[in-house]
Description:
Helix content: 25-40%
Radius of gyration: 22 Å
Structural class: alpha/beta
CATH architecture of the largest domain: 3-Layer(aba) Sandwich
CATH topology of the largest domain: Aspartate Aminotransferase, domain 2
Largest sheet: 7 strands, mixed
Number of domains: 3
Distance between the termini: 55 Å
Number of strands: 11
Shape: globular
Amino acid sequence: MFDLEKITRKNIRAIEPYQVGRDRFAEDPEMVFLDNCENNYGSPLGKGYERYPSSSQAALRSAIAGYKKVNTENLALGNGSDELIDLLIRCFCEPGRDSILVCEPTFGMYRIYAQLNDVAVLNAPLLPFTFLADEALILERVEAHTTILFLCSPNNPTGTSINRDQLKTIAGNFSGLVVVDEAYIDFSEKASALDLLKDIPNLLVLQTFSKAWGLASLRIGAAYGNPDVIAILNKVRPPFNISGTSQQVLLQALNKADQFPELVKAVLQQKQWLKKELERLPFVKRIVGSDANFFLLEVTDAKSLQAYLSDHKVLISNRSALQNCGNHIRISVGTDTENQKLITLLNRYA
């Protein structure tokens, strides 16, 4: 049975949130702001950047919630998903005692943030070759002080996904938080776990505007979950963690959300073409089925291939150091021009 109070660190429960009183006056043109020690003359760029951004992020959170069809109480924003991962571990893992569980090979920041917070990392590896999750192994590896399971779906670097029945089984048999990281969900034909939030109180879904939305430089990630969990994240996040410029630009992008499907469609069309071309290459031993905007490939010599492409001004990611990923590379889907250059170079390499 999920018990939020039990897994929330005692010192986190005791924290009073930092209060920013300005937000309720931010839109009043007659208000004189002498409260935050800013330079009211402006900056070398002129006026417009001298004010701190909205701490409540009310307008942006409302727009995102409306787009995602959730309540604002179900939403917390982070400086990228990375900040949210760090906050989750800091809020719900007692240093030197608790652990998280991951399914490797997976996104490396779960382990890094756990280590930074003196939290142990347990591993229930994805099945070799298929890179699919083993729910029985996940539940078997959980220990008494495991408070968070991180499940990346579609998973980085494999592109594979966890199915909904597995997710329900895992969440129903675990007393901590089940965090599903859906950074690449917009490229997938599989449904998001967002619609399971109302039925699974210990589920939290991470998404980002860095990938399919093409807004990586804004650094905005989103956590969707139980309002009580979200309230804790909003209590401890830095009050100005999303810059004013980032908030404004994302609001502009959301106002043009009707263009978003075409951007994703273009990537997926290139993905289909790229896969056919990669399958023709003699040094490509296999391509792992991917629900994301990248492929994990097993090749004959990953180090040599990476060096060759780098010498010709194309960067790929050598994932060979990860569990069960010997001689595996990850290639992102680029534009038509970029993919043409890649395939031309790979045909010469062959």
